[in-house]
Amino acid sequence: MPPPDTEVDVLIVGGGPVGLTARALLQRWGVRTMLVEKHSELSPFPRSRLVNARSMEIFRQLGIAAEITANAFPREFGRIRFRDTLYDADFATAAMVGVNAPIPESPVIGVATSQDRLEPILLAAADAPVRFGVELVGLAEEPESVVAELVDRRNGGGMRVRARYVLAADGANSTVRQRLGIDTTGPGAMAAVTTVVFDAELNTWCADQPAGVYFTAHGSFLPLYPEGGWAWLAPTPEDPERADWAGLVSRALGSGPGPDGDHGVRADVLRVQHWVMNAFVADRFHHGRILLAGDAAHAMPVIGGLGMNAGLSDVHNLCWKLAGVLHGWAGPGLLETYATERQPVAHLTLRQAVANTRLMFQAQSLRQEQLDSGEAAPAHIELPWSDRYFAQLGLVLGVTYRSAAVLVDGSPPPPEPFEPPDVGTDYVPSAEPGHRMPHLWLTHDRSTLDAFGEWFTLLTPDPAGWDRQTPAPWPLRVETLAEEHAELCGLSPDGALLVRPDGHVGARWPHRPPNGSPLVRALAAVTGATAPP
Fold this sequence. Notes:
26% of the residues lie in helices and 26% in strands. The protein is of the alpha+beta class and 533 residues long. Helix 1 packs parallel to helix 4, helix 1 runs parallel beside helix 8 (307-327) and helix 8 packs antiparallel against helix 9 (336-372). The longest helix is centred in the middle third of the chain and has 37 residues, at 336-372.
């Protein structure tokens, strides 16, 4: 077999937000990557809409949160509205908590933005090679690497890349997952949907009551960019090739307040995309040296905006582990903890996303029943969820990991399946091992979350007492934790927290052990490495 054309540490397959974020994270770790994307350019469609608070924390770590916010909608768009038609008054509304206003649980807030505005920022966040229009057509696993066969779709030229690992972020119809023969579990295809991107002057009916999404009986309307542009999402008609999309959008807008019910607005259709709303979790996230992330690992219904955000947390969890194995301070078994930690979260997220979808349909069906009854429908209906439902801060910020990379009471938990608690809406900050480290202000403008990066972090009110331990070969920084914060975290004045690079607590010592090297032992255990003598 001829030698490969290129060798890299990690080949990333898929150039959406998840793959691009993985590229940026791995570059900060000094890992050599190449990203291949079968399409010729970044997606021109708006697609994902919501960047939640946890994802913005990741982007803050990458130094791009401010730019993403500047290109997103103002906070008042962090709301959903239910209307009979776009021209009618709201009959129900709900805030996207963590998007529409600051929250005390995080130093950032999420944003409503379109994926085609987000992706260029992620692409510019790293300068590692990216090959658009290049498709993966074959994989050959070797003992120490994976050889990928690639084809340039523009000229038919082929190339071979040898990578130590392959990170597959190539979407719900993942070529990599299918080639590996990995099955999925879940409802599967829930609906065939069409997105129509169009221009129209609709501010007359929406400017005073902005929203990220307007749900109507005739489909959903989404403002695309702060300066203009709209999308209409609706079930795909039986004969989409012959559809009059401008007419369908116009009819979906409904009768307006003009003479004879003419709203006087014409839709200028720009692009049309057909897609399937999928709902599943892959049965395996890890196959030898190949790892699945994002929609390749779990496809979520779009209601509630959980899918892309779950994928971003996937690679935030995975990339530090890949870096540790590649740089030699972690054992290869550390990569097994990726699936152990993220697969249960994917199942929990899928249940929530499916519930969101059913509740949304329930709200629309209830209104339609009122209208069909011939009686005057009430001005408002009670939504089948609380005002905080779409925030789901418990799921966004309160995820708990249990694996060999988390020490509970000083040792890894038993290797039995762990079902994370169904935290749902409410988030209760906790510094227990496995939890995301709570946001606490270290200074007036620096959060505990700002202390984390391409290293482990030891948070302690007694840095001098812990600084005597030598943590080589692991990257480690020691941060002083004020005693009032230490008490909130369950620490005595000489206790400490060991926080992983992804911001989750890896170990906690309420008191400093009297002898030995607990920090070195903990780092070795968390990373699956051999402790130095």
